[in-house]
Amino acid sequence: MNLSxxxxxxxxxLGLLLFTTSCxxxxxxxxxxxxxxGKTYQLDTFTLDPAIDLDGDKxxxxxxxxxxxxxxxxxxxxxxxGGKITVGFGASKxxxxxxxxxxxxxWIYDESRSVLKITDRDDPTIQTEWEVTSAxxxxxxxxRFEESGVTYTGTMIWKAx
Length: 161
Hints:
Elements: H1 6-19, E1 40-52, E2 61-63, H2 70-73, E3 76-79, E4 84-88, E5 103-110, E6 115-119, E7 127-134, E8 138-147, E9 150-160
Antiparallel strand pairs: 1-2, 1-3, 1-9, 3-4, 4-5, 5-6, 6-7, 7-8, 8-9
Organism: Spirosoma arboris
Protein name: Lipocalin-like domain-containing protein
């Protein structure tokens, strides 16, 4: 793995983990605001462009979903009213799943820029911004970072469950 890409990918991965871990039984009243508020989502696809070799097999990886453990892919996220992120573990449990990790942090949506800003619950200095290009039955989020003069684009599609 290219170590110079570790920090930016950590931000993408952190955002992903925050999003892949919602409680389906937490009923909120029908929210107003962005169309993704109050819905529970599960990661469907996660891609990176341009591709880079992340697993050390000397082949560039574009589809990061296939590099994730199956126990991470059934986790859910919910953007609650008031800016709280609720996360939940799916039926397939990962060995390091911690029931204390159901608070995924907070979110703010900048409608003028279509940007979702996520703040980590444990370290508020860690913030991730995602451009929301579509929302509703699914959310498409895009984040970009630059490393060694190359701009990488991470795209995640979340489906409502």
